[in-house]
Task: structure prediction
Amino acid sequence: MNEIFLDNNSTTKADSRVIKEMIHCFENNYGNASSSYHIFGWNAKSEIELAREKVAKLIHANNDEIIFTSGATEANNLAINGYFTKNKIKESNIITSNIEHKAVLDVCMKIQSNYPKSIYFTKVNNLGIINLETLKKNINKNTIMVSIMHVNNEIGVIQPIEEIGELCKKNNIIFHVDAAQSAGKIDINVKNMNIDLLSLSSHKMYGPKGIGALYINKNSKRIDLEPLIVGGGQEQNLRAGTLPTELIVGFGKACEINKNEMKKNEKNILHLRTLITDTITNSIPNCIINGTLKNRIAGNINFSFPMLNGMTIINSLHNIAVSNGSACTSSTSKPSHVLLAIGRNRKEALSSIRIGIGKYNTKQEIIKTAQTIIEVIKKKS
Result:
């Protein structure tokens, strides 16, 4: 059997059109964009600015609001730590949720280790959705930022970002959104959603690894960030270092493709998710679907099979790639903090598997995967 890749929430296969653009850049526009005295530098800079425009268009931003980073993790660090460092006063605090990615949680915990009581965690309900009334109660006069992920990386749940953005605007609070899992999959309009800072990742949307971006709302005069990396003044003095032209070009192309094909991909992927969900739940009726199916991206389904450990299932699938949660923490034996937060007990959390469906998956792959999972569970339990 050929290998089947169903871990598209951890990363995605680069689109061949992205690779083609990158190869052309490697071969023809390999100059340093900071070299402003010759055509090689001018061409590289031109390529970068064209890509910047494509990234901006995906999220309905202006070109000068896009700062290139090495990925969403760096963008999260720059947004949260960069803003807190520059704007903290006595008793300042940041509110985030208890189901964020480690790229947000670890930044917040580092801040809290130096400034006790600086981080508040708002809870989600058993479907994985933030309660707006609870969030309102968490906000106080010292709250300077709210940081909430758009889509959860483990259970695919979509948060009410527009409503949270309106709440932040009303309270004059900076709103940061980790959009690593949503960009290119569902529509994002940073203006309509009242988002001040938004983190993006290329490799989650069929682009190259090692590149991402931070959107910074230029209409907000309150945003002043302390850079993480200095030594060159690139990216408006916020992210020093020679810009990786080829990666940026690939990122821009991926954004362009996703903007044009998002709705078509979503429809096809949702059909595949429905197929695998119905097939498994009909055969294994006591399985648990983690997170709501109503407000969820098409390409994610997360099951718990309480009769078995999730890793037992995963290790028995052989040529089928699925995961048991975040790719950044799945190597540990600890239960998922996300699943515990939505009310799963330790056994249920450890029995989970995450299936990430992407645009390159086929109906035949989904049928084969569902059949294999069912066979493994019936044999092992």
